[in-house]
Amino acid sequence: MIRLGLLLLILPPLLLLGLYFWELADVRACQLDGGHWDYVASVCRDSAQDFASFFERAPFIVNGSMMTSVVGLLLCMMGLVQRRQQA
């Protein structure tokens, strides 16, 4: 139970950060080319675009990864409590 809990605790935030930084690399490449990043359409444009946060564009991914991490934390705690009671 502890291994599954650690997996659920650590993996979702790492995947979330990976997605965020993947998009950030595209944004920076667009800015280096002199463009403006359109966050909603995920394309580089010539005119300025409004900013939309990652949470606004992908709430299910952000909330889902955080909830999965909380479930992983609870599984870790339950596994540690069960181990202590068995000893």
The helix/strand class is: mainly alpha
Output the number of helix runs: 3
What does the largest sheet look like?
2 strands, antiparallel
Number of domains: 1
Strand order of the largest sheet: 1-2
How far from one another are the termini?
Answer: 16 Å
Based on CA atoms alone, the radius of gyration comes out at: 19 Å
Mean pLDDT: 93
Order of helices and strands: HEEHH
β-strand amount:
5-15%
Low-confidence stretches: none
Give the fraction of residues assigned to helices: over 70%
Number of extended strands: 2
Judging from the principal axes of the Cα atoms, what is the shape?
rod-shaped
Structural summary, described in words:
By secondary structure, this protein is mainly alpha-helical. The protein has one domain. It has helices at 2-32, 54-57, 59-86, and strands at 36-38, 43-45. It has a two-stranded antiparallel ribbon with strand order 1-2. A hairpin with a 4-residue loop joins strand 1 and strand 2. The chain crosses the membrane at residues 60-81. Keywords: Membrane, Transmembrane, Transmembrane helix.
Task: Sum this structure up briefly.
This protein is mainly alpha-helical and 87 residues long.
List the helices and strands and how they pair.
Elements (H helix, E strand, L loop, with lengths): L1 H31 L3 E3 L4 E3 L8 H4 L1 H28 L1
